[in-house]
Amino acid sequence: MKRSIINTAIAIATLTTLTVSANAEAKKGGKGRYKAPEAVFIKLDADQNAVLTLNELLANIESRAQKKLDRADTNISSEIELDEYLAKKRHSVDLSEFAADIVQCVQDTKDATEGSNIIVPAASHFASPQSKFTQLDTDNSGGISLTEITNTLTAHQTDAFSAMDENIDNSVTLEEFIQHGENRRATREAVKACIDSLITLDEPV
């Protein structure tokens, strides 16, 4: 029964991914919600030498971390506590029960669509909100400090740079930057389609 549910979810996710991708392709060149990758690249490329370095990606990382803290720290304790962390909608949903099925669905969607842009996530990506909070709270203080936010953002940007730098020359070209964006979009679409299908078919949340 469970396998049947997963198979149906995969079919729906595949169709959804193909439809969304086709719509995105049709809208290329028009006005969209997000800035064109070329414009983002130019803004990040501080020295205007047509390639990005890790240092350029990490520019203003402290101020970005401070903004995240200021938005979430409603009780002004200089840390994001668990209730404040969970107040953000995307942090409050627990998908850990569906982790293995989501990963399998995304893998099968990638195979079915021959979607080389889809990056299959690890099951740890769907850990419970409490587990994610604990991972971020590296000093076990019960709250996520500015330093911890900065370290997390730095790690994410470093991982993103490594993923973009396909030829490992410590620089990212516009082509690599655009490809990374396409990979993220395709992956996000596949993951969302799988989550929506599995949760709807299995049990309401």
From TrEMBL:
Q: Where is the EF-hand domain?
A: 133-149
Q: Which Gene3D superfamilies match?
A: EF-hand
Superkingdom of origin organism: Bacteria
User: What is the protein name for this chain?
Assistant: EF-hand domain-containing protein
